[in-house]
C-alpha cells in the first residue's frame, strides 16, 4: 500500500505519513519507522487500535520500502490493541513496543530477521506469539513481563535465547519449536509454567541444558547430543562429579560457579568455549586440562580455585579473558601450547595466583616469545621449553566410546553401530578406535571386553 506524505521540518524525524513518523535511511531508498516524541512516554500521543506498519510508502512521489522499526518507536503506546508488521521490515529495534499494554496480537512480516532487546516487554495483554523463521537470536528480555502470555511458537532458525527472555511470564505453558537452540542466557525460561511442568532433574531445551529442577544430585550427567550448558546452570556445594557429553561445545557463563566440592572435570574434545566464571571457586579442582579445540576461556573462569596444581592450556586457545585464573594460588605447573602472539589476554589473568616457584612449560620453538610476552614473562626465570605437540588422542579414558566417563556395555553398542553403518565413526571423535590402529573393527570390541574384564 502506498501512502501519502507530509514532510516535517524542525523535528526529530524526516517525514510524517498517515500518522506515522519515518526517517530516511542512508541508502536514500528505504525508511525506518521512528517515535513521534523522543525520550517520552508514550512515544505517540494519538495512536490507538490496530497498528499497521506498511511495506512501502511514497516519498517525493517515489516508492520507499519500510525496512525497520526504530528503537523506542512505539514505547508506551498503551492504546494500541494489535500490531501488524509489513513484509519489508527486517529489523525491529530495542524497546520498540515495550509497555504497549493493550496489545493482544502481533503479526510479523515474513522478512523480519531481528527482534531487539526488550522489544515487547510488559505487553501485559499479549497471549500468544509466533516468531518468524528468519529470526536466529532473541537478544534478551524480549517478552519479559508479558504476564498473559500462554503460548509461544519458535522457528527452526532460532539458535539463541537471551537472558531473561521470558522472565515474569508465569503463565507461559506451551512452547512449540526451538529444537535448534544452542545457547541460553540466564533465566531465559526458568520463570515460566513450562519450566515448572518439567520433571525433576536436568531440564533441557533444544540442545541446551538449562538447569536442574528438584534436588541437586551429587553426580550430574548431561546427556549426549547437548551442545551447551546454559548460563547459571547450577550453584551448589552438593555437586561432586560432573560428566559432560562428547557433543558439548560451550559451557555458559557462571555455569558451575561456586560448586566448591566439584572434583576434576574431563572436558570433551569438542569443547570450544568456557564461559565467564564458569568454574569460579571450584575449590576441589586439582588439575585443569583445556582441550585443543577450546578457543575462549572467559573472565574469572577458574578464579578462586586455589587447589589447582596443574594447568594445561590447549593449542587452540585464542582468548583468555581478565582474571581467568586469579587467586589460583596452588598452581605449580602450567603447560601452555599456544603461540602467545595468537592469544589475546585480558587484564591480570594470573593476579594473586601462582607462587614464584611455579614452572611455565612451553614448546621450545616458542620459548623466547613467552619470555618477553606480556603477563607470561612474569614467570621468569621458571619458563622452560620442554613441550612437544600433544599426541592426537581423544579426551577421556580408553574404552569410553560414548564419552560418559565410564566403560560399560553401552560402549560396545556404539562400536557395533559404527560397524553396522548406523552411526558415523566421527560421532565419537575417534574414541571408537579403542586400540588406536586407525580403524574401527571388531578388534576394538575385543579391547572394550578386555577392559571390562580387567585384562587391560
Which terms would index this structure?
Leucine-rich repeat, LRR (right-handed beta-alpha superhelix), mainly beta, 456 residues, 32 strands, disordered N terminus, globular
Question: Can you offer a commentary on this structure?
Answer:
- With 456 residues, the protein is mainly β.
- Among the domains are: 1-126, Ribonuclease Inhibitor (Leucine-rich repeat, LRR (right-handed beta-alpha superhelix), Alpha-Beta Horseshoe), CATH 3.80.10.10; 409-452, no CATH class.
- Helices cover 7% and strands 24% of the residues.
- The chain has helices at 193-196, 367-372, 409-419, 442-452; strands at 6-7, 15-17, 20-24, 30-34, 49-53, 56-59, 62-69, 80-85, 91-92, 105-107, 114-115, 128-130, 137-138, 151-153, 160-161, 174-176, 183-184, 201-205, 208-213, 219-221, 228-229, 241-243, 250-251, 273-274, 287-289, 296-297, 310-313, 319-320, 333-336, 344-345, 359-363, 383-387.
- The strands form seven sheets. Strands 1, 2, 3, 4, 6, 7, 9 and 11 form an eight-stranded mixed sheet that branches. An eight-stranded mixed sheet has the order 18-19-21-23-24-26-28-30, with no helix packed on it.
- It starts with 5 loop residues before the first strand and ends with a helix.
- The relative contact order is 0.05.
